[in-house]
Amino acid sequence: MRAVGAGRVGSRWLIVAQIGLLLLALVVMAIPIAGIPLVLGQLRTLCATATTCSDTGQLTPESLRLLEDLGLSLDLYAKLSVAVPAVAAVVWISASMLVVWRRPSDPVALLTGSFLLAGSVAVADGPLRDALAASNTAWGLATAVVHTLAGVALGVLLAVFPDGRWVPGWTRWLPLGWSAYAVPHVVLPGSDTFLLPVILALVLAGAWAQIWRYRRDSDVVQRQQIKWAVFGFSGALFGWFAVQTLGNTVFADQLTPGSPWVLLFSVAIRGVWLVVPLSIGVAVLHYRLWDIEPIVNRTLVYGALAALITLTYIAVVVGLGTLVGTHGDSGASSSSGTLGLSLLATAGVAVAFQPVRERLQHIANRVVYGQRANPYEVLASFSRRMAGALSIDQVLPGMSFIRARRSVKSR
Length: 411
Known about the structure:
76% of the residues lie in helices and 0% in strands. The protein has 3 domains: 11-218, no CATH class; 291-370, no CATH class; 374-411, no CATH class. The chain has 15 helices and no strands. By secondary structure, it is mainly α.
């Protein structure tokens, strides 16, 4: 069995990598520290119209009145708006430091730490990063380099995770492709749209490399690590898509520029991305402690339930409201009609919740566990196989077969 990060580098290159990681950590930690005062001063100032504060998070006078009606002050709103990305950045940085501290001589751990450090700038502390980049040219260049490094580190990590080997062999060329993306991304600001096909192709190539590795060149331990990493990235992407969809549909009226509700949207976005550093930390350090299958099982069930409840509510309230003419009308009749549709949607969800949950649980069990999903089905299969058995020579092989189907697959 190959150990985690089995590939080792020479001591000289290891020292160079550790020094580079330390310098990166200093820059990454300096970005939120230097950006917090700038963003606080910005958010404590009102903007005249919603169009002028679409990218800054500043409130309009109307939004300030709504905030005060909720019992909150402008100063508290500014502090909370700064605390959300700062706390998210701390989680990413802490996960990086923990991985490197536990495995300081492991090249995969160093690469993972680099990705988590740079990812904190790319994902977690966006408002702090943007305010700092707009204030100073040098900071703008530094944030662009770190942001680009996050993508490059992710691409290389997809090619060599979890044991540090380039598997399959063509993945050795992926760093060249990521370099071709990195240079124009730093030198030519605003080139993201042009580089989007390149980024997509490189990410898909890395994902395919992980699939190939999982199916053909991984042992039990490495498969468990890959499961944790895939769970983190796929869960974060699904959560991000769900939050964005809800923000653009159900809560579109509340999430207008200059609205205090944008703060809750920021919490949700950064919250779902925290799954990435946590799952990668588990994949590298504690993959033996927790079984991934039950977590994936529950995520599938309750994620699907949440999506179905949301879609049901939208279909009943918005769809039927538009059909019967209550959506968009004014007056007491419109309010009572909308309330009636909301109650109808709630009642429908309550009635269908348990049978739908059981059905989704059955599907999730099949997806995650396969033939091991339902013990009653396994016992029934055992009874059918043993019904025609006439001797102990036929019974024992059948029992071994059923035991094998019920046993946990290699992880």
